Amino acid sequence: MKTVLITGASRGIGKETALLFASQGYETILTCRQSMDALAEVQREIETTYHTPCRIALCDAVNFQEVQELFAGISRLDVLVNNAGIAHFDLLQDMTVADWHHVIDTNLSSVFYTCKLSIPLMLAAGKGRIINVSSIWGNTGASMETAYSASKGGVNALTRALAKELAPSGIPVNAVALGVIDTDMNRCLSSEDIKTLQNDIPACRLGTPREAAQLILQISEMPTYLTGQIITMSGGYE
Questions:
Q1: Lowest mean pLDDT among 36-40, 100-104, 192-196, 219-223
Q2: Residues 183-195: pLDDT tens digits?
Q3: What is the Cα–Cα distance from 30 to 51, expressed in whole angstroms?
Q4: Cys-Cys crosslink for 83: which of 14, 92, 157, 203, Cβ 3.0 to 4.6 Å?
């Protein structure tokens, strides 16, 4: 049985990705920072519906020691999905230094931590896949989201660079650059803001977490020659 680790799996894209991988017979290892009740509900749904093993753990992705403790209990890993992330809406001049570090650490440093600890497992097995959840703002930047854009731009660069390191070992590393997805991360937007976004998106709607999860699963099934790619899904919105 293949094993997938998904960070930020208590809701939204992470939850849907967990359910989709479980439906394909994967053992799932799911983490979140604080929503243990929600994560336990995902576990119950997986075990009841798909009858596949599911392990859950609280793990603050910005705390390397906690990530190390998580990996101490993992002996095999076929797929790593780095999904944990936060948004921050503010003018750069109004951001605190603490705000900046929190966004960068959560969205970028966490990817470094999990990749660093996943690679030895994958090298030992002679296979594995890493998929990082990024954003179109990592490609183009977004006003009022400077730290978020910078963190996702960093994820994209890390993805391309790490793919070159691991390609000789047959371990592909790719990222999905998602557009505006209907998740809790965007709940801070007003109904008027959402309507404006929908009008700007050629597909005339927000993406769904399920669609994002379907893309992640499909990438995990692609030939290993597909590596170092930032694959965009945005409904045509750039």
A1: 192-196
A2: 987 776 778 888 8
A3: 16
A4: 14
